[in-house]
Amino acid sequence: RSKSLGRCCFRHFDLSMQVEAMQRRQIECDLRAAIVKNELELFYQPIVDVRDNRVHTFEALLRWRHPTRGLISPDAFIPIAEETGLIVEIGEWVVERACRDATVWPDDIRVAVNFSPVQFRRCDVVALIARTLAAAGLAPDRLEVEVTEAILIRDAEATCVVFDDLRRLGVRLCLDDFGSGYSSLSYLNKFPFDKIKIDRAFVSDMHNPKSLAVITAITQLAERLNLSLVVEGVESEEQLAILTNRGIHHIQGYLFSRPRPFAELLPVAVRAPGKAA
Ligand code: C2E
Ligand code: MG
Ligand code: MG
Ligand code: MG
Hints:
Elements: H1 2-36, E1 40-49, E2 54-66, E3 70-72, H2 74-84, H3 86-102, E4 110-114, H4 117-122, H5 125-136, E5 143-147, H6 150-153, H7 156-169, E6 172-178, H8 186-190, E7 195-198, H9 200-204, H10 209-224, E8 228-232, H11 237-245, E9 250-252, E10 260-261, H12 266-269
Parallel strand pairs: 2-4, 4-5, 5-6, 6-7, 7-8, 8-9
Antiparallel strand pairs: 1-2, 1-9, 1-10, 2-3
Helix pairs in contact: 1-2, 2-3, 3-5, 5-7
The chain binds ligand C2E and magnesium ion (3 copies).
One magnesium ion is lined by residues 59, 114, 146, 176.
């Protein structure tokens, strides 16, 4: 009896795996078409210095405007793009688009672009960025490359060389989702980061004194190591007050703005010098 049940469960498992594989192939196929059909779009979310309420960076966040399924979030398709290698092509489009978009903003606003570990493995990111900046006519120090800890785990040596090259190019490096992965503090010395971004999990869990203690400790660490610090995922005034009390001023979160399409940013971003805001 238990044997037949086991077989039944196995078949069920097998079937759901097949369905999942089919769905993935469908998404892969749709995604290839999406690139050609221009269905990918960049949204931007501001990172604000709360001391003067100015935007100093916009983070580019990818969206897929699917003709029937509507706006699809990156978490639903980036992993598939990574598995299939499509992320290389998509990532090229993202950085080109983001750099072109940024040229329209005032010179003191940077653009932050997320890069996948797969891009670093499969393409020459330094060459890509150098040629993209030149083509767009964007100053290198206006581009910030965001990577997560995942990239530091494999090929640490090679990654370090690439990071040094990026720094020489004048591009800035940000360690995203800090504290969420396999953080090792030695990364902070070993790799030439300009900035760390505390993962939003710590913010949503801030009522827990232990999470708050972690935030405080990371703040002190960043200060000692001369790294800029951003906290992402700030949704309430209460969270903001606790963070500013701890000397954290660079904030990203729904409290200020959700990610929005490029065309909707202009009123925020463009403050022509000499004109009233
Ligand atoms: P991320 O780089 O850590 O980006 C921050 C994510 O947090 C974004 O989700 C943003 O919308 C969300 N967020 C910001 N503030 C708040 C808040 O106050 N509350 C909540 N609940 N969420 C907030 P999104 O846009 O869905 O992007 C998810 C992830 O997808 C990104 O995480 C990044 O890892 C990846 N991603 C997005 N665009 C790209 C891209 O162009 N290339 C690559 N390789 N990855 C990308
Ligand atoms: Mg990011
Ligand atoms: Mg993040
Ligand atoms: Mg993330």
